[in-house]
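re: that chain from earlier
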Amino acid sequence: MDGGRGHVGRTVLVLGGTGEARGLAAELAGRPGTRVVSSLAGRVSDPKLPEGEVRVGGFGGPERMAAWLRERRIGAVVDATHPFAARITASAVQACAAAGVPLLVLRRPGWIEGPGDDWHWVASLPEAAGTLPALGGRVFLTSGRQGLPAFAGLDELWFLIRTVDPPEPPLPRRHHLLLDRGPYSLEGELSLMRAHRVEVLVTKDSGGTMTMAKLAAAREMRLPVVVVRRPPLPLPATDTQVAGTVEEAMTWLDDLPDPGPGETEH
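^ sequence. v structure.
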């Protein structure tokens, strides 16, 4: 990609927290004349930090984010946040439109059900909770710590809860908490699920390879999987682009017009 257009003297803001965001920051950090700033939400206590500059915390809404983009003369924004981080994506769409900054949404493809899978698609975590009593009594819950209250009232079920950081109550009454971070292996997931006699898996459609071993383990064990669908991208009828890979994001950046003086960082 070296020698492409659209990156000389440009400051790129990467809204991060995902493996794709770290990969994109690493690519951009190695480019002469390119300055990359990664923004993390700050919800994880010990995040994996990307290369380049890093800021932590929210912007305070789309208006303040637009002002931040103008003040720092950001030349392009890549929203590489989690597929379920709909709020920051909506803010980025509004802020970039107000500030006149090109925006790309980088979302890895979702998981695809295959032969031998027994997936039950739902639209929300409360709907996922409602399906569980009919599917199994021992639940492997891997949908993140913020949505755990949706399962707190299921006293008749037992939960193996895996999160990166300790969750806040309320939690299901009968549970075992496991603090761990991917990537995970098929062998490890099989061992964990068999040791805890798991009968059903709950996950969001996060996509990617870092945590998909649990899906293969469920398939091998012939377990049902409750999968929460992604929220729709909050994209209006604008020229906002969507990419599925870091390579596609780099191509988009290369194809942008060379920045004018107002976008160049001094």
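Confidence is low (pLDDT under 50) at residues 1-8.
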